[in-house]
Amino acid sequence: MVLTLYPPALRGIVTGLTVLMLLSIIIYLIQQYKPVDSIITWHSGGENTIQPLFYIPPLGLGTWQIPKSKTASVVKFALQKGYRHIDAALIYGNEKQVGEGIAASGVPRSSLWVTGKLWNNAHHPSAVRPALEQTLKDLGLDYLDLYLMHWPVAFEAGSIYDVVIDRHSDLLETWTAMESLVREGLVRQIGISNFNREQAEQILHHAKIPPTAHEFECHPYLQQTDFVRWNLEHGMRVIAFSPLGNMNPIYNSSHTPLLQDEFLLSFAERKGLTVAQLALAWGMHRGVVVIPKSEHTDRVAENFEAQYVQLTADDMKTLNGVDEKARFNNPSEEWDVQLYSGLDGV
Ligand SMILES: NC(=O)c1ccc[n+]([C@@H]2O[C@H](COP(=O)([O-])OP(=O)(O)OC[C@H]3O[C@@H](n4cnc5c(N)ncnc54)[C@H](OP(=O)(O)O)[C@@H]3O)[C@@H](O)[C@H]2O)c1
C-alpha cells in the first residue's frame, strides 16, 4: 500500500487530500451534466431543439421610398438620435445615400447594425458575390451585419427593374452562395425575407450556416402569431417590415389606415402615446424587431421613443385582439408566382 511509505503523521493528511480531490472530480462531473433538451443544436431540423436567437437592435430605420435627396440627412439624423440599425436594400435605389448618412453620422461602424438584401435578379450562385460587392461599395462599408435573400423568387439576370421569373433557379444553391459570403467575412449573418414555412424549412434543413433572421410583414392588422413563434423557435429573429400596417402609400389600401384606426387612437390617447408608438411598442414587446420608415425627422424621433413604452399584459391582450389577418404587401399576381402559401392574409 502506497500510504505505508508515508510516516504515520502524514498518512491522515494524504488520505484527506485524496478524498478532497476525488470529491472535487465528482462535483465537476455533475456540473458538466446537462439534460438533453438544454443542449443547443444547430440546423438539426428537429422539433425539440433550442436555438439561440441572435441579438439585433430592436428598432431600426426602414429606408424604402426615402427619396435620394433626403436619405443621407434622415439616416444621419436617425443615427445621431440613437438608432443603431438601418434596413437597406439594393432595390430601394438609395444605398449610396444611406452610406453617406452613415458616414456623416460619426457613429462608429462597430456600433451599427446594417442589413442589406440580395435582389431577385442575382440568385444565380455566380451573381451573389457581385451583388453584395455592389451593395458594400454603395454603402461604403466593408461588411454587412445581415444579408437577406429578399424574396424566395428568382428573376432572370438583367436589370433590377425587369421582372422575368427564372423558374429553374434553386433557392438552396443561392443559399449556399450566401454562406460563402459569411466564410469570407463579407457578411456577419445571413437570413431570409418573405418566405413561407415550407420554403424556410427547406433552407433550415439544407443550411450549413442557418438563417438567423426572417424579415416579413407584421403589424397589428397582420400579427401572424403562430408563424412568428415558429420562426423564433427555429432560431430566426423576426424583423417586422411595414410595422405601421398600411401606412406605406404604395399599398393603396382601401382599409382604414392603421394610424387612423378609431379604437387604436383612443387606446393610444389613454396611454399618452401616438398610434405609431403603440404599434411599434407592441411589436417589440412580442420580441419582434421593428423597422419603421419615415423621411420626416419629427416622426423618426417619435418612432424612436417607442422603445421606452411600457405595455402591460392587459394592453398586449387588447392589442392582440385587433388582428385582421390583413396583408398589404403581396406581389404574387404582379409576378405570377404564389407567395405566402399557408400563411395568414393570403
Ligand atoms: N423585406 C421586404 O420585402 C420589405 C418589404 C417592405 C418594407 N421593408 C422594409 O421595412 C421598412 C418599413 O416598412 P414600410 O416602409 O413599408 O412601412 P412602415 O414603416 O410601416 O410605414 C411607412 C409609412 O408610415 C409613415 N410614418 C412613419 N412614421 C410615422 C409616424 N410616426 N406618424 C405618421 N406616419 C408615419 C411614413 O410616412 P413619412 O415617410 O412621410 O413620414 C410612411 O408613409 C421599409 O422602409 C423597408 O426598409 C422590407
UniProtKB/TrEMBL annotation:
Out of the domains of life, which is the source?
Answer: Eukaryota
Site (Lowers pKa of active site Tyr): give the residues. K117
Q: What is its EC number?
A: 1.1.1.307
User: What role is this protein assigned?
Assistant: Catalyzes the initial reaction in the xylose utilization pathway by reducing D-xylose into xylitol. Xylose is a major component of hemicelluloses such as xylan. Most fungi utilize D-xylose via three enzymatic reactions, xylose reductase (XR), xylitol dehydrogenase (XDH), and xylulokinase, to form xylulose 5-phosphate, which enters pentose phosphate pathway.
Annotated catalysed reactions: xylitol + NADP(+) = D-xylose + NADPH + H(+); xylitol + NAD(+) = D-xylose + NADH + H(+)
**A GO term, aspect molecular function:** oxidoreductase activity, acting on the CH-OH group of donors, NAD or NADP as acceptor
Pfam families in the record? Aldo_ket_red (PF00248)
Q: This protein is called what?
A: D-xylose reductase [NAD(P)H]
Alphabetized InterPro entries for the sequence: AKR, Aldo/ket_reductase_CS, NAD(P)_OxRdtase_dom_sf, NADP_OxRdtase_dom
Q: Which organism is it from?
A: Aspergillus bertholletiae
Start and end of every NADP-dependent oxidoreductase domain?
59-323
Q: Which residues form the active site?
A: Y92
Q: Which residues bind substrate?
A: H150
Q: Which residues cross the membrane?
A: 12-30
Print the keywords alphabetically. Membrane, Oxidoreductase, Transmembrane, Transmembrane helix
